[in-house]
Amino acid sequence: ANIPVLGTGDSGFESRHSDEVFKPFPETCYVSAVSPRRRLRVRIPALRQIMEQEQIFYVVQKAFIKNGSEILVLNDPLEGLDYPGGKIQKGEKDIERALKREILEETGLDVVVGKPFFTSIDQYPDDHKHSGKVFFIVFYECEYISGEIKLSEEHNSFAWVDENNFRSVDDNTWYFDVLKNYFDK
């Protein structure tokens, strides 16, 4: 059940084997690493380029943790606006468990991981510790279950924001654009 699947949706093409030759990607394909039922729609131009070049990239997951009408946002003292989550670590096969691990480590919260709602591909900037490396990022809606926020060393503050006050955390980054689009939907 935890075997990565890459497919093209309704065409029936799926592979569970890394050595299988894939047909060219359509403009939209589906990626699932939990089960074929939990698919995530991805627009592919940049991913196609990465895959054609056989480039290695990180997979990053971020959580929009909802508590009522509010979303938890964090502040990274070096990079600004952030959300709980991080890279899937070597050896982790269950992406939901990996995200829950990151959330617990960074905030001390227990959540239910919901559906993905935004994906992107980007490259770490020159001043980042992973400079030049490419990452594929997936944002998930998550529901707060329990716990009190205890921030890890990675973050120095947090806020719960809603559709009325989320602009107070605008730091002119694309992370804020994701938050704005989330509340504007």
Description:
This protein has 185 residues and is α+β, with helices and mostly antiparallel strands. The protein is globular, with a radius of gyration of 17 Å. Helix content is 17%, strand content 38%. The two termini are 32 Å apart.
Radius of gyration using CA atoms only: 17 Å
Structural class based on helices, strands and sheet pairing: alpha+beta
Q: What's the total helix number? A: 3
Q: Helix content range of the residues, please? A: 10-25%
Find the count of extended strands (DSSP E, 2+ residues).
11
Q: What's the helix-strand series?
A: EEEEHEEEEHEEEH
DSSP strand content: 35-45%
What are the low-pLDDT stretches, counting only 5+ consecutive residues below 50?
A: 1-44
Largest sheet: 7 strands, mixed
Shape descriptor: globular
Task: Give the distance, in angstroms, between the N- and C-terminal Cα atoms.
Answer: 32 Å
Provide mean pLDDT, rounded.
77
Topology (SSEs and partners):
Layout: E1 5-7, E2 14-15, E3 28-32, E4 40-43, H1 45-52, E5 57-67, E6 70-76, E7 80-82, E8 85-87, H2 95-107, E9 110-123, E10 134-146, E11 157-161, H3 174-184
Parallel strand pairs: 5-10
Antiparallel strand pairs: 1-2, 1-3, 3-4, 5-6, 5-8, 6-7, 6-11, 9-10
Please give a quick description of this structure.
This protein is an alpha+beta fold and 185 residues long.
Relevant terms:
185 residues; disordered N terminus; 3 helices; four-stranded antiparallel beta sheet
